[in-house]
Amino acid sequence: MEDPANRLSVLQDSFDRFLVFGLQPDEQEFMSCFPTLPDVVKEALYDLFKQVLIHIEVNSKAEFQDICDEYGMRDQLSELEQRSATLSALDVSSSRTSDSLASVTARESSIRLAAKQAEISYLSEELEQAMRIRDQMLVEKKRRRCQVSDLMLNYTAAADSVKKVFMAGKYSHPV
């Protein structure tokens, strides 16, 4: 019987690889989002963006552990393994009298395959959910980027207005 902790670590490893794949920034694509900004500003923004992605990755890994604990993933994997072993033992004991060794092996393989397929199905659903969350995060990131751009435009417009008022006041009063 395989250790549920090992299965959980394999699940964690799969999730980690998914994060690494999903959170790889494309510098050229990022830079193209800010065509009017100077390169120095774009590079600073890109560095900040990479730092945010690192924090997202770290927080996602911690959240994954919390979710596994919350849903009792270790216990569920252990139960799945026990069911698989129980079914395998039942099939072996009932078929010893009538079936050949090849038949027993085929049944055991079939049960293990069914358990693996159930696990694959479950992991696929979890992956789809993680991808949906990633997509939502990308939409949120885009929305926030637009908000930052709007704030930058408003700040620039306000700063220009203040500068004009200051300059007009500075030169309109004789000393």
Total count of strands? 0
Oligomer: single chain
| Poorly predicted tracts of residues | none
Kindly report how far apart the N and C termini lie. 92 Å
Main pleated sheet: none
Describe this structure in words.
The chain has 175 residues and is mainly α. It has one domain. It has helices at 4-22, 27-32, 39-70, 73-95, 101-172. The N and C termini lie far apart (92 Å). The mean pLDDT is 83.
List keywords for this structure.
175 residues, mainly alpha
Give a concise summary:
By secondary structure, this protein is mainly α. The chain has five helices and no strands. The protein has one domain (4-145).
List strands and helices in order, with pairings.
Elements lengths: L3 H19 L4 H6 L6 H32 L2 H23 L5 H72 L3
Helix pairs in contact: 1-3, 1-4, 4-5
